[in-house]
Here is the input.
Amino acid sequence: MAVKQLSVFLENKEGRLQQVFNLLKEADINVISASLADTKDYGVLRTIVSDNEKAQKVLHDNGISSKLVDIIAINIPHTVGSLSSVLNAIADAGINVVYMYGLSTGDQGASIAIKTNDIPGTEKALAPLDIQYYEDKKFDGILE
Here is the structure.
């Protein structure tokens, strides 16, 4: 099951990140998870939020670029080799992991978000593994 991730493009300067989170707060949008990657001049904030369309509109109305991207959000056991098994299954299917990051969804297992170049193929590759998938609706109620 793919989940929508809101990718926000920011200038790498003081106050820009704070502005995004303040706008989301003022719009009563819950941030489930966030990851920030930066370069010298810009950053990409990857978030999972409670209302993607509303968040995107609020940001757009304030001159901040964003886009919705499909990712896979899964939960794997806290055991040696669990992440390796997931990555092996994806690689063995000939799929490239574009990026991944940890999620804050609870204390049972390790939750991660994975962006690949083939979401349906990744789901098929992971089918034999004992993986718990998240859906957008499963994030309702987290961190309220």
User: Anything to note?
Assistant: The mean pLDDT is 86. The chain is about 30% helix and 35% strand. The first strand starts at residue 2 and ends at 11. Residues 23 and 137 are 22 Å apart (CA to CA).
